[in-house]
Specification:
The complex is a heterotrimer of chains A (336), B (278) and C (292). With 278 residues, chain B is α+β, with helices and mostly antiparallel strands. Chain B folds into two domains: 124 residues, 2-Layer Sandwich (Nonspecific Lipid-transfer Protein, Chain A); 136 residues, 2-Layer Sandwich (Nonspecific Lipid-transfer Protein, Chain A). Chain B has eleven helices and ten strands. In chain C, the strands form two sheets. Chain C has a five-stranded parallel beta sheet, with helices on both faces. In chain C, strands 4-5 form a two-stranded antiparallel ribbon. Classes of the chains: A alpha/beta (336), B alpha+beta (278), C alpha/beta (292). At the A-B interface, helix 10 of A face helix 6 and strand 8 of B.
């Protein structure tokens, strides 16, 4: 793939997703002198340290001041720089939202916001540090592209695509290690184009982020144990959403289950629901995610299980939805 | 008077397939081939195929067609009280032997004198029998296409009939099935498609493209001739899949299940069971 | 003296023209933020007509000086300013605030050529200006960034986040950022000291690491002198506290917080135009008399 990311999938299993982001941005920074990185006292946590070590003159630690960071990013971008600003997703989306709205999106400037510790991936930190509303909060912002990569290699692809595409981006990644979904970065990542990971017509599972791996595991279990064929779509770009992929899933499977590490209000599930309703064809939709309540504290894996967005939770919900009718079919006559 | 013949459960399956799925193909012949259909232009009548069966309401099982000004409507499994022309078999077994080509037990024919209607019906029936009862596939492409159409329309319908009758080999598949459709198609012939949809024990069959969603699997034959090789049991399905003559689009491991159901229909429709269960 | 007599007189005339066109625009628009527009008019005049290197004919020049007016609600004086600079059609001022107009209360930098930022959410301009100032050395450029703050918006914490960072980054690269506060003492609900006390205001800036100068914001030579000092630079970032009068130049609005935003009827418009003429002519006469 163009851009020459030099680490391999094998290495990627040893790297936390944020570390892959850090390496990617350091490599991009070598080629493009207009790339600047900003961090609010999180250079270590958000793994921008590689970039800082190599290009200290293009790295700014703004202290614990997310609003200021976003404003600075907008000013720099207005002056022609490509700015990667990284902080915890929860603060990028909520603490600095007004700046993201006005300074970045209204002015339509070239700022790439990297939200780390997405969803409940910093589970032990509790709800102050869980980012469960960020997609819903950022998705409506005009000019903003929203990407939730499934793993490290996809993060690298997303970061490269963001660097190469003018305008605001929000890329949400997790804390720590992600299960490896892709063995190569050459799978045709394209902003706004969903990836069909597995085909099937009984139901479509549309997932993003850490839930893509879980969806694939669930599809395997559904096939092996229940002979159910689930289509799995990695909807890495939440905005602009791949309408064609959703409408195709509606037409071909008529049942969709969305899975995200995010509240069920306003995120991937809502984005998919909007497309379904506008498509005008009946479809059964179940949104898996964090229900409208605060998450417990705990390990990410445990919280995913708790919210039924892990493989077992997806299997359970698929089996339930398979019993439901899309529409009542009273006439079961044969055509003669 | 009805002859004393023991009617088995298999006879009932077969009769159901004939009356609900096979006999209705007469309309397909008349609609597809002007040579036969045009002879009914401007004519209105009722044609019925029936067999006496004491356990049925009214003492017989029947399927009838009402033709209005040359336009055919099929009433599968419905008895008409006063058909214009009727082929009435003294029992179900004879109806089965007649339509499966296992023999020629003549029915009692009502309306023989109405030659303007009777003769074209007989010609159309002979055309259908000529196609479906032949041991080898026809040589002419147009005949192959017609025969494919009859098979493709017969098989999903036949499976659905067996399901509705509660045939255990069929219900074992349908009862636990989520909402799925299985389709048959022939590459390059969009009119040669049919399907069966099953859901939690229910079933329905139809002709043409399955539009509700993408079928769970589609058995797509590479040509009418290759389709007939399989449909007439002249070739092995697995071999054809291996060589690309038959493509299973969707969940390939379910190809065998569908094939099994199709052969179950053939088992009754070709009268094979009559020898097997003697 | 920072201004020659000719400059002073010329700038007084520009300031008059700007306030006068602002009154007209408010009249066309039906209403507007007259109070804060009039108080900031002299600051804008000195920046755009003397201290900011800005060629309206080459408004996209990457080496131009930047001016960030963080108190974005004064679009009703920025639009006339850009009209006088030839970057907005004067005819377009008559559409101000009207449906479909490219001009409204808060200007859109993607619609008004030469406007460096879309402000309006208060307290944002400081960080944007800092970002622009930081970008200059990274790109090998030498432009200056002027930040114009309202005093009321200094209630916003983000102003102080940026102030802290401005001091912190002052000596990294060559940060050339000059802050000017339009200290007109009034906000929507009343005097700044009643609503949320800012004093000791200058001390706050000092504590945040700034070199400060408080100056009469309607005394062009004094304001010019402060700007000369700031432009010359020093080890600390500069903050000029321009002591101004909200709604200055018009009898009924001068110093009256209620004229933060308002509409003129025919009589008020006539009075305002007449008052402003008198006020400005006095200032021009003073320039002609005292200028050297």
């Amino acid at each position: 793939m163009a851009g020459g990311i030099t680490f391999t999938a094998v290495e990627s299993t040893k790297l936390a997703t944020a570390e892959i982001f850090g390496k990617t941005i350091a490599e991009l920074g070598a080629k493009d002198k207009s790339i600047v990185c900003l961090s609010p006292d999180l250079a270590t946590s958000t793994k921008m340290i590689d970039f800082f070590t190599k290009y200290p003159e293009r790295f700014y630690n703004v202290g614990i001041a997310e609003q200021n960071m976003i404003g600075i990013a907008a000013g720099m971008a207005k002056s022609g720089l490509t700015v990667f600003a990284s902080c915890f997703s929860v603060f990028a989306s909520l603490r600095a939202l007004d700046q993201v709205h006005t300074d970045i999106c209204y002015q339509n400037v070239n700022v790439k916001l990297i939200g780390t510790h997405g969803g409940t991936s910093f589970g032990q930190a509790g709800s102050t540090h869980h980012a469960i509303e960020d997609i819903g909060v950022i998705r409506p912002l005009v000019n903003m592209t929203v990407i939730v990569p499934a793993d490290g290699l996809e993060t690298a692809n997303a970061v490269k695509a963001a660097a190469a595409t003018p305008g605001p981006f929000y890329i949400r990644i997790n804390r720590g290690f992600d299960n490896v979904v892709y063995s190569t970065s050459d799978y045709g990542f394209e902003v706004g184009k969903a990836v069909t990971m597995r085909d099937g017509t009984d139901i479509t599972i549309i997932a993003c982020g850490s839930c893509v791996y879980q969806a694939l595991q669930a599809a395997s279990i559904l096939d092996f144990d229940y002979k159910l064929k689930a289509r799995v779509i990695n909807m890495h770009t939440i905005k602009p959403i791949d309408r064609d992929a959703v409408l195709k899933a509606v037409a071909e499977t008529r049942k969709i289950i969305t899975v995200e590490d995010h509240t069920v209000i306003g995120g991937l599930g809502s984005a998919v629901a909007e497309v379904i309703v506008e498509g005008g064809k009946a479809c059964l939709l179940k949104k898996l995610g964090i229900p409208d309540k605060w998450s417990p504290i705990g390990l990410h894996e445990d919280l995913m299980a708790n919210h039924e967005i892990d493989a077992q939770g997806i299997v359970k919900n698929v089996l339930e939805i398979m019993k439901q009718d899309v529409e009542k079919d009273e006439n079961w006559g044969d055509e003669v | 008077m009805a002859e004393e013949v023991k009617i088995t459960q298999s006879d009932l399956y077969a009769a159901r397939i004939f009356l609900h799925a096979a006999v209705p193909l007469l309309k397909v012949i008349c609609e597809s081939e002007p040579k036969y259909g045009d002879k009914f232009k401007g004519k209105s009548f009722v044609f019925q195929v029936s067999a006496l069966y004491a356990d049925a309401p009214g003492g017989k099982l029947a399927t009838h067609f009402s033709v209005e000004d040359g336009v055919w409507t099929t009433h599968a499994g419905v008895t008409h009280d006063a058909p214009t022309v009727e082929f009435l078999f003294p029992n179900l077994k004879k109806l089965i032997i007649f339509f499966s080509g296992k023999g020629m037990p003549l029915p009692k024919i009502k309306g023989l004198s109405k030659l303007g209607v009777f003769v074209p019906i007989l010609l159309a029936l002979l055309r259908m029998a000529g196609l479906m009862q032949a041991k080898d596939k026809p040589e002419k492409l147009e005949d192959q296409i017609m025969l494919c159409k009859l098979y493709l329309y017969l098989l999903p319908n036949g499976i659905s009939q067996l399901n509705k009758m509660g045939h255990p080999d069929v219900t074992v598949v349908t009862k636990t099935s989520p909402d799925r459709a299985y389709a048959l198609a022939i590459d390059g012939y969009p009119e040669l498609q049919s399907w069966i949809r099953v859901k939690a024990g229910k079933s329905m069959s139809g002709r043409g493209e399955y539009k509700r969603c993408k079928p769970f699997l589609t058995m797509k034959f590479a040509s009418p001739s290759l389709a007939l090789d399989i449909l007439m049991s002249k070739a092995d399905m697995v071999d054809y899949m291996g060589s690309g003559k038959l493509v299973v689009d969707g969940a390939p491991e379910f190809g065998g299940t569908v094939g099994g159901l199709m052969f179950k229909v053939a088992y009754y429709a070709q009268g094979t069971y009559l020898d097997a269960e003697k | 003296m920072a201004l020659t007599k000719q400059e002073w007189v010329g700038l007084e005339k520009q300031a008059y023209a700007l306030r006068d066109l602002c009154l007209d625009t408010i009249n066309w628009a039906g209403s507007g933020h007259w109070g804060g527009s009039s108080s900031v008019a002299d600051i804008l005049t000195l920046l755009y007509y003397k201290y900011a290197k800005f060629d309206p004919k080459n408004y996209e020049d990457p080496n131009r000086d930047r001016v960030i007016v963080s108190k974005g609600h004064v679009g009703v004086i920025l639009a006339p300013l850009f009209a006088l600079l030839g970057l907005v059609k004067k005819e377009d001022l008559k559409t101000f605030n009207l449906t479909g107009s490219k001009l409204g209360i808060h200007l859109d930098s993607n619609k008004v050529h030469g406007l460096d930022a879309s402000t309006g959410s208060l307290g944002h301009g400081s960080s944007i200006a800092l970002g622009m100032a930081l970008a200059a050395p990274l790109q090998g450029r030498k432009y200056k960034t002027f930040l114009v703050l309202g005093d009321g918006e200094c209630d916003e914490g983000s102003v102080w986040e940026a102030a802290m960072a401005t001091s912190h980054f002052k000596n990294r690269g060559s940060l050339d950022l000059i802050t000017i506060v339009d200290r007109n003492h009034n906000m929507i609900d009343g005097n700044t000291e009643d609503v949320m006390a800012l004093e000791p205001f200058e001390d706050k800036w000092k504590a945040f690491g700034f070199e400060t100068i408080t100056v009469n914001g309607h005394d062009l030579p004094a304001l010019a002198e402060a700007l000369e000092k700031a432009v010359a630079g020093g080890p600390k970032p500069f903050c000029i506290i321009a002591d101004t009068i909200k709604g200055v130049g018009v009898s009924f609005s001068s110093g009256n917080y209620k004229w933060h935003y308002g509409a003129f009827d025919e009589a008020k418009y006539t009075t305002a135009k007449k008052d402003l003429k008198e006020y400005s002519e006095q200032r021009i006469a003073k320039a002609e008399k005292e200028g050297k």
